[in-house]
Every structure is written in C-alpha cells, then in structure tokens.
Amino acid sequence: MKTEIILFLISSISLTLMPGPDILFVISQSISKNKTTGVLISLGLCTGLLIHTMLLVFGFSSIISNNYFLFKLFSSFYMLLLMTQEINLLPKIYSNKSNYKYNSPYLKGLIMNLINPKVILFFIAFFPAFLFSKTLDLKIQFAILGLIFFVQALIIFISVSYLSKRIFNLFNISSKSLKISYIKSLIYLIIIALIWID
C-alpha cells in the first residue's frame, strides 16, 4: 500500500475522532434514543460523505464553495430547529405519523452532512495532499480517497453509537430524563458554533 494512502487513512481516523458536528450528533442521538438510532444517523452522515465525494469527483463542489455563507445559514437553522423541538419551544412537527419519514434518523444524518459546507471544503483542501499516483486519473484518485474516508468514518461512527449508549447506561440515567434534552440542546449549540468557526 502506498505511503500516501496509509498517511491519508491515519489522518482521516484522527480527524474523524476529533470533536466535530458529525460525531457529536451521533453521540447525542445515541444516548438520547438508542444505538439503532445512532447507527442510522451514522449511515445518513456517511451517505452524505459519498455524495460530497461525487460532487468533488464531478466538479460540482464549486456550487457549495461559492455559496458557503448560505449553506452555513441552512445548517445552523436545521440545528436550531432540532434544538427547539428537543426543549419543546416549538411543537414537534414530526409527531404526525404521516410525516414520520421526515423524522427518519437516517434522513437527519444525511441532511446534516449535506448542508454543512465545511465537509466539501474540507475534501477540497484535504484530498489533494494525498494524491498517490502520477498516472491514475485525478477523479479516480479522489473517488478512492473518498471511499476510504467513508469506510473509516462509518466504522468509527457506528462504534461510537454502541459505546456512547453503553457508557451512558453505566450511569443508569434514563434517556427520557429532562437533563438529556438540555444536554442535547447544548450539543446542538456547540455544533452551530463549530459550523461558524473557520
């Protein structure tokens, strides 16, 4: 295996494990719901990573980078919506069974990843540093790096889903506790801050 790919994998794992919007979202949903919810959130987030990879490969990344501020607003608004629902400041718009599909953990993860402009900008800045071939087409190299990033992120997020719920259960705190709602709300605020910190 080429040195560049090994270094890319090590760097990717390190960055994925760092406190950021995605991993904090997985943790908050896992402890307040269940590990299955955390896994579905993880699948949604990682599907978003694949889509961002395709945007990079096919050259559509400029759409997001050119509308960076707008995407940050969308992402922040989505987090605020989830937070206000959590602390019951707004009616739970997903309570109607006919709208259940919009409350899907998978869809939540997917939306959160897609409307976070930092993901594609990160890919644009990060991937070129680990190009590993002078002969292989650039698009193929980006696709391979994107797939590697997807696999390691999925493994880490799913592992975090299982571990965070198990660790939380050791403290014997109910996921329906009022404290959990406020902990999740605080995490949403941290995520919003991370979105705006450049």
Automatic annotation (TrEMBL):
InterPro entries: LeuE-type (IPR001123). The chain crosses the membrane at residues 6-27, 39-63, 69-90, 110-132, 138-160, 180-197. One of its GO terms (molecular function) is amino acid transmembrane transporter activity. It comes from marine metagenome. This is Lysine transporter LysE. Its main location: membrane. Pfam families: LysE. It is found in: Cell membrane. The keyword Coiled coil does not apply. The keyword Transmembrane helix applies. The lineage of its organism: unclassified sequences, metagenomes, ecological metagenomes. It is a multi-pass membrane protein. Keywords: Cell membrane, Membrane, Transmembrane, Transmembrane helix. PANTHER family: ARGININE EXPORTER PROTEIN ARGO, ARGININE EXPORTER PROTEIN ARGO-RELATED. One of its GO terms (cellular component) is plasma membrane.
